[in-house]
Amino acid sequence: MKLYIYEHCPFCSRARMAFGLKEVPVELSVVMANDAETPVRMIGRKALPILERDDGSFMGESLDIVHYVDHLGEPVFDGPGDPALDNWGKDAWPLAAKLFIPRFTKGDFAELATAEAREAYRLREAEDLGDLEALMTGTDGFMAALRPKLEALAPLLDGRETVGISDILLWPILRSLSIVRDLPFPGPVRSYAERLEQRSGVPLLFDQAM
Ligand SMILES: N[C@@H](CCC(=O)N[C@@H](CS)C(=O)NCC(=O)O)C(=O)O
After folding, report:
1. Is the minimum distance from the CB of 46 to ligand 1 under 6 angstroms?
2. Domains of the chain by range and CATH?
3. Is the bond preceding residue 49 a cis peptide, omega within 30 degrees?
């Protein structure tokens, strides 16, 4: 099987996590950010992740891919999930995105390896979020607003050992936030992020924090 991804993409991280956590081998293929033809040919629209199955068929939508991979073995992501974690993610996402999206556009990701690809991605995100440099300038304020949310998350993750669908939803947000330099991850949040990095094999972004 082959999984088409952008390295920065949180939805792609959901699918990558499922393969890693379930120990199902998959080949990763990075699509350039300005390549519409490849995804449109496969699923009729420009959106990743896309899974190419061994029979040559294609599947889009991260959570459909997670479900598919999960059911190749004994399912672990079918449970009801943890509403506290799911709600944390829904609440934090809009603010978190103001920190991680502008940094993604400057990041060291294979899909942005050419000037044209990076510019196409930057323009797409600026269309959604407006002036990305203004968001960079607003970093301190966004970090101050996010800090209490991360502190409230800490007790929910302290000692969490089980892995379920809520981790598939939550962890990619934390991974995305790991590109934000000096954003204080409370101890239990950082340990959780690193534990799932190890178990899933999907790398965090601390090494390119900006
Ligand atoms: N609902 C989709 C959302 C996927 C999505 O929005 N992916 C983004 C990347 S994070 C995308 O491909 N956007 C269009 C593009 O960048 O070409 C899923 O869960 O798979």
Report:
1. yes
2. 2-70 (3.40.30.10), 83-208 (1.20.1050.10)
3. yes
